[in-house]
Every structure is written in C-alpha cells, then in structure tokens.
Design brief:
The protein is built from eight helices and no strands. By secondary structure, it is mainly alpha-helical. The protein has three domains: 57 residues; 95 residues, no CATH class; 40 residues. Helix 4 packs across helix 6.
C-alpha cells in the first residue's frame, strides 16, 4: 500500500512537473511571440522614421538640376497656354515650345517639366487633374505623355476629322495663286493620317 501510495505520489509529482513544464513552454511561446511582435514593430518604426527623414530632406536632385534649364527656357520667352479651344493656337504653342527645345538641345526628361511650368488658368486646372490620374495609374510624365494628353484635350477628334476631310478634298482654285494653295495644303497635311 505504501508502495502504491508512493508511486501515486511520484506520478502526481511527475504530472505536476509535466503540467508546470507545459505551462512554462506555453509561457515561453507567448514570450517568443511577444518578442517577435516587438521586433516587427521596431522594424516598422525604423522604416517609418527613415521615410519621414527622407521626406523632410530638401529635394535636391530634380529641383536643382531643373532650375538652370527653366532659366534658359525663360530667356527665350516661351508663351503660356491658358486652355484656348482653338486648334491653331494650341498647335502653334506646341510648335513654338519644340523650337525652343531644339535651340536649347533640351534633354528629353526636362521638356515636360518646362512645359507644365508654362500652362496657366483653365489649362493648369485641367493638367493638375490629368496629372493626378496619370500618377495614380503609375504613368511617368514625359514630354510624349504630356503631348498625348494635350492633343486629346485640345485637338478634339471631331476637329481632326474635319481638317482631314478638308485635306482630302482640297483643290486649287483657278483664280488663286499656287502659293496660297500650298500653304493651305501644308497646314491641312499635318492632320492627315493617310500620308
């Protein structure tokens, strides 16, 4: 009886020790999990601090390198564009800017920055909205992207179709000089998709 009681006592001790060990392991698991969460929180906090520090630093790269180009661009008195829905005015504006870019030998990546600097009024409001949509779609704003958007807005398809129809039906009048016919032909030619 004593042996049975002793064995029962030993089993109880072993059982309680096992239970304590299990609780200890459970506690260790909780400690490990808490430590992992703290490490993860610390990593997130470090990343956020680094991003905030980067955002608070003055933007040097683009702003500093763009400034000399904008100064040179300004010396050529580029016209502003206010959003006129006149195809000829819009086309002349783009043509004038491209001439300035050619004279300056302007790098491709600077053109859009300088043009955006020259849009005003209604055109500026249009561009701010367009730019937000492009950025939300992850589109890099280049000169070609700007021109595509500009032409969509200020060269409505109906107007382009109308000019193209005029081009396809142009004839030299008998009583008008060839020079005038040629000038009209060249203006309409630019809008033709057939050539």
């Amino acid at each position: 009886m004593f042996a049975a009681a002793h064995r029962e006592f030993q089993v109880g001790v072993v059982f309680r020790a096992g239970l304590a060990a299990a609780k200890s392991w459970e506690h260790c698991g909780e400690v490990v999990q808490a430590r992992q969460e703290q490490e993860k929180d610390a990593a997130i906090a470090t990343t956020i601090a680094a991003v905030l520090a980067q955002l608070q630093q003055p933007k040097q790269g683009i702003a500093e390198t763009a400034q000399p180009w904008i100064v040179e661009f300004g010396k050529h008195h580029p016209p502003g564009f206010k959003g006129t829905f006149d195809v000829q005015v819009a086309e002349d504006w783009i043509t004038r800017l491209e001439k300035i870019f050619n004279i300056l030998e302007c790098p491709f990546e600077r053109k859009a920055q300088m043009v955006i600097y020259k849009i005003e009024g209604e055109a500026d409001r249009w561009w701010k909205n367009t730019e937000l949509v492009l950025q939300a779609n992850g589109t890099l704003i280049t000169w070609e992207v700007f021109k595509d958007q500009f032409f969509l807005k200020y060269f409505p398809r109906s107007m382009t179709d109308e000019k193209e129809a005029k081009f396809l039906t142009i004839k030299q009048a008998m009583n008008k000089p060839f020079d005038k016919y040629l000038v009209r032909y060249i203006k309409l030619f630019r809008n033709s998709t057939y050539l």
